[in-house]
């Protein structure tokens, strides 16, 4: 059942159609819908300053976890560089873990630390993969 309410609106305003799935449906199941956009002008959006800066194509300075920071000598021994972003340090650590097969075979979420990793992970023998990001924080100066 569809009822048009266009008789109650202004001539240039869009008409609303009352739609119902069943004729005996309670009023809470009713909804209003606009007719198709035929013959209307397209919507014009204003360009914001954020969109304009993206369009300029300039590269911005890295910040936050993507900004290179100095690392401790223990971390430097593992990653091989004196300055590195946190994101890249995590990638190096995971590559080292995979290369040396340091994941627990029964539970891949647990890392079995060798001597290099023990220096970074506070002397712990086993570390959960969710703990890694927190344990490397003190190594960024």
TrEMBL record:
Q: Which InterPro entries match?
A: SWIB_domain (IPR019835), SWIB_MDM2_dom_sf (IPR036885), SWIB_MDM2_domain (IPR003121)
Q: Which CDD domains match?
A: SWIB-MDM2_like
Region (Disordered), start-end ranges? 50-70
Which ranges carry the DM2 domain? 64-141
Checking PROSITE patterns in the record gives: SWIB_MDM2 (PS51925)
Low complexity biased stretches: 50-59
Instruction: Please indicate which superkingdom the organism of origin belongs to.
Output: Eukaryota
Q: Protein name, please?
A: DM2 domain-containing protein
């Amino acid at each position: 059942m569809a009822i048009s309410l266009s008789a109650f609106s202004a001539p240039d305003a869009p008409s609303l159609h009352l739609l119902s799935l069943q004729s005996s449906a309670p009023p809470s199941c009713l909804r209003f819908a606009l007719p198709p956009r035929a013959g209307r002008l397209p919507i014009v959006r204003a360009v914001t300053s954020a969109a304009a800066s993206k369009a300029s194509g300039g590269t911005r300075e890295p910040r936050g976890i993507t900004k290179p920071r100095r690392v401790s000598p223990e971390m430097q021994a593992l990653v091989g560089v004196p300055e590195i972003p946190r994101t890249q340090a995590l990638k190096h650590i995971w590559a080292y873990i995979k290369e040396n097969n340091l994941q627990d075979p029964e539970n891949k979420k647990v890392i079995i630390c060798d001597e290099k990793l023990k220096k970074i992970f506070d002397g712990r023998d086993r570390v959960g993969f969710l703990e890694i990001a927190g344990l490397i924080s003190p190594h960024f100066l």
